């Protein structure tokens, strides 16, 4: 079955740039999405189709997907960005697959 | 405003069954594919099942295939998940999620999420 791998944790200082990676076999040939989940809340879609931002998502959120790695980048990270982030893609059998999640700490 | 409200969770014995429901409002339900995604306590997200706008295509995670059945009632703006042979591995918060499009797969994404309904499996 298809697997997506994320680092368990990433730390960043306020105002700096955070990068979260997501790796999977030929992930660049699929579309990647990214979700933010703050503690005690439901997930929120922040990126879809590799790099598109839904309405209401700040411009500081951007992403790319090439080769075997998708990357979520948060420029000018704010304390409110502290959350768990999940990447997601669809395998060849149209089954949804999530990465294990990355805890972003802003300190 | 688009909204999804799950219900039907609760305590069930191992081997038991449960039916979850999701009530949709604020958007044209029949135009969108829908999904169930679960999250075990302290763990990550797991896609459980998806269904296209017209129920023409349905998919399941390997972990639930043969035990769970998803169906929708477009006339009642509702999505359901019939779960059988429940085990400890099924204990989780179950989210209902709306896709961006009427069908799911490559390019799709979970655009709207409910608050979830908790399923506890214990004797």
**Approximately how much beta-strand content do the residues of chain A carry?**
35-45%
Q: Which oligomeric state applies? A: heterodimer
Helix content of chain A: under 10%
Alpha-carbon distance between the two ends of chain B: 40 Å
- Helix-strand pattern of chain A, N to C? EEEEEEEEE
Query: Which consecutive residue ranges of chain B, at least 5 long each, have pLDDT under 50?
Result: none
Summarize the structure in short.
The complex is a heterodimer of chains A (about 110) and B (about 120). Chain A is an all-beta fold and about 110 residues long.
Describe the structure.
Chain A has strands at residues 9-12, 18-23, 33-37, 44-47, 61-66, 69-74, 83-90, 96-98, 102-106. Chain A has 107 residues and is mainly beta. Chain A starts with 8 loop residues before the first strand and ends with a strand. Chain B has 123 residues and is mainly β. Chain B has strands at residues 3-7, 10-12, 18-25, 34-39, 45-51, 58-60, 68-73, 78-83, 92-99, 110-113, 117-121. In chain B, a hairpin with a 6-residue loop joins strand 5 and strand 6 (58-60). Chain B is globular. The mean pLDDT of chain B is 97. The interface between A and B is medium-sized, with 26 and 26 residues.
Features:
heterodimer; A: mainly beta; 6-stranded mixed beta sheet; B: 123 residues; 7-stranded mixed beta sheet
């Amino acid at each position: 079955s298809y697997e997506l791998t994320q680092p368990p944790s990433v730390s960043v200082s306020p105002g700096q740039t955070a990068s979260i990676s997501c790796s999977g076999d030929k992930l660049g040939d699929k579309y990647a999405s990214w979700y933010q989940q703050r503690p005690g809340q439901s997930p929120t879609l922040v990126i879809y189709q590799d790099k598109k931002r839904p309405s209401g998502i700040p411009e500081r959120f951007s992403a790319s997907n090439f080769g075997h790695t998708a990357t979520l980048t948060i420029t000018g990270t704010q304390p409110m960005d502290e959350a768990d982030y999940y990447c997601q893609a669809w395998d060849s059998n149209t089954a949804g697959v999530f990465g294990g999640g990355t805890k972003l700490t802003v300190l | 405003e688009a909204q999804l409200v799950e219900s039907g969770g609760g305590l069930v014995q191992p081997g038991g069954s449960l039916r979850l429901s999701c009530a949709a409002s604020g958007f044209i339900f029949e135009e969108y594919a829908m999904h169930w995604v679960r999250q075990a306590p302290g763990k990550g997200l797991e896609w459980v099942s998806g269904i296209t706008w017209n129920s023409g295509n349905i998919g399941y995670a390997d972990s639930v295939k043969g035990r769970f059945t998803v169906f929708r009632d477009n006339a009642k703006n509702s999505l359901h998940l019939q779960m059988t042979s429940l085990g400890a591995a099924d204990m989780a918060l179950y989210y209902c999620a709306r896709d961006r499009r009427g069908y799911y797969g490559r390019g799709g994404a979970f655009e709207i999420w409910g608050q979830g309904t908790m399923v506890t499996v214990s004797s």
